[in-house]
What does this fold into?
Amino acid sequence: MTSPDTPLFLKALAGETTSRPPVWFMRQAGRYLPEYRALRATTPGFIEFCLDPEKAAEATLQPMRRFGFDAAIVFADILLIPRALGQDVWFEAGEGPRLGALPPVEAMREKTAGAGEALKQVGETLSIVRRELEPHRALIGFAGAPWTVATYMLDGEARTIGKGERAQARTYAYAEPDRVDAVLEALVEATAHYLKMQADAGAQALQIFESWAEGLPDDLFERLVLRPHQALVRRVRELGVTAPLIGFPRGSAALAERYAAECDVQAVALDTACPLAVGRRVQAIKPIQGALDPLLLRAGGPLLDRRVDALLEAWGDGPWVFNLGHGILPDVPIAHVEQVLKRIGAQ
It folds into this structure.
């Protein structure tokens, strides 16, 4: 059992059923907040904004001040790791990320142990936030999962065919398995050092974002998602990190149960499409997080209340962190966020 002064969020990750589910939202710091838009306008480049500790800390704290979520997640981006490994990364206005040519694997391997130091600004952000955050609110660090980050690194600028399915990267996974596996191994090592740096800087929990687990057949899921996650968790623990880990294999469907059983994360985040019954089965294995539809949050109204109630009824008697099944959308009305928080008794 945790101590009485342990943050509610960490109690749930420890397997305790709490008086109400702790709540935070993926992408809770972002464009739906007017204060974020004003802050973001002060720095032209997105990468530069992420690596400005004072501004990134302010972005992290803005939703905490407005809504009082139970946990803050550091403002950063999953594509900082390729940058630390020597790949050019930039963001085109209105189009999203762009990456240059993939560096040779040997060159990336030489940089893996230094990934935390290369991204030390994220650690500085975490330290600032931890100093300003109330003790009963938890602080989350994160990284993109190896396969998800690899999809961007492998695709580079060639993301023109089957963009939504990461078709080029998946084709490489079939056609050039040794090369793809080597990239994943480098990413496991770099990400482990990056997560250790975040834990050392004050992160009390760490989330692994696997945004592109969707659509993989079970054999490819095992190779590209499950095994790298197992290796990453093992390496993070070897580096001395004790903070709980949350795995988010978005789009994994029924494979989420296998993931929960075979990957040594402390909790599993569930996506929007996860059936309530599957969530219950995963919850029988370990604590869960999720899975409100961000589009329903955008729509609001009685259907939003009904879905929140259905989630509370299905998962509320077990360890569960209330969250979205994907990131909050830029045009979500603030009143709808407040509606959810009041419905679950968090505001």
Q: What stands out?
A: The CA atoms of residues 23 and 322 lie 5 Å apart. The chain is about 50% helix and 10% strand. The domain at 8-343 is CATH 3.20.20.210 (TIM Barrel).
